[in-house]
């Protein structure tokens, strides 16, 4: 049978320490001993102790057991989930009852019977493991209500390109393989991650997401791994990280390609070890998650450029799901338009029809912001339409830019520099939306975090 648990024996009699250690080490993974209860705080900081076997009297001639009650309270304050078994040579029924009332798991009289001590410690270990599981579940619930209450959009498509996506998704979702979702901004990477979770065996457990592009460097570990109260200046209370919140379920990391190298190292360690340690904490926490990542960056090129770790790419990319841009699946546009019209007509209490000319315009448009841009366009049109028909000609960001009017040859551009082209697009979007960064970001199919990074990059 596999040995389990770490047992700490605290007694001022070295013979007792030796006898208990020789007996217990045959059945448990690690045995720690000390003859001074003042050493226990340090031991609990450096070891994940499951059970403490604690003497009740440390001063010569003391028989009241009050010292044991004092240390019992101190140890539970430090590690609430720990199981404490009290022992004394001066046992009586009343003292045993008082020990249990004060939070002891059990009570042992010295000298003990070996079988009795082994049974008591085994029961205490099971009790401690149950308390640890309950404590972790309780910590998870602290941050789940908001995540679980977020409404999710439908994941739609009937084109050949999307049918291939659905086929890969259906095969991969049933496994626990890590998945990397790639595609341009606005193509539905988060919806794909939700679909993976909903079709997996973890569907009844949490789906937790984090936009890595919006996490500042000094908050990275706190966001992912959590922190303990007092770990840094603004740490007013314990915080549960996203890894622990997602325990048993799915963790979705969006814009993973924007992570600095130092953060990549820490993420890789957490994935490999399946453990995290909160900032300011001493004990690692086991986590069981299904990892789904997304990026609009070309990660293989980032690896070649030294901007992304190859070993991390291998870890997150067991299966890749590549989402096509909307311009490559135009046959899905009528389906998507109908879907978003239904949503926003209900939301804004409108009843509108869709003219054939409007649908034709929507199908011809290039959609640089992909499905996200289409959804926002339909929402604006529903709000601003004055008659009984959906009017889209005033709401497209650049209605003259359609698939049929885009340049078909690079010679038609006056520059081939991608940074210059991106700057122009950002300036045009900001001008169109009168400096509103959020609206400009939506029009470009970017998150606010990605937009601000580009503004800083180009000094805009």
From TrEMBL:
Residues 6-125 form the Response regulatory domain. One of its GO terms (biological process) is phosphorelay signal transduction system. The modification 4-aspartylphosphate is found at residue 55. The keyword Cell cycle does not apply. Transmembrane segments: none annotated. Residues 155-383 form the Sigma-54 factor interaction domain. Keywords: ATP-binding, DNA-binding, Nucleotide-binding, Phosphoprotein, Transcription, Transcription regulation. GO terms for molecular function: ATP binding; sequence-specific DNA binding. It holds the Pfam family HTH_8. This is Sigma-54-dependent Fis family transcriptional regulator.
